[in-house]
Write a structure and sequence with these properties.
The chain contains two helices and three strands; from the N terminus they run βαβαβ. The chain is of the alpha+beta class.
Length: about 60
């Protein structure tokens, strides 16, 4: 099942000067500061947020 999978997401670039929607996606994923890592459930909603701000993130499936 897709809901059992998790994705480890790390913020590798600064959010300074980014658009409001991109900052909202980063906060929605639970990332607070640079080099902060969180594990999120692999859902279409989370995948969409990751794809939108992929240039700021490093991610891997767990």
């Amino acid at each position: 099942m897709a809901s059992d999978k998790k994705i480890k997401v790390t913020l590798v670039k600064s959010m300074f000067g980014r658009g409001k929607k991109h900052m909202a996606c980063v906060k929605g994923l639970g990332l607070r500061r640079m080099h902060h890592t969180v594990e999120v459930i692999d859902t279409p909603e989370n995948r969409g947020m990751i794809n939108k701000v992929s240039y700021l993130l490093k991610w891997e499936e767990v």
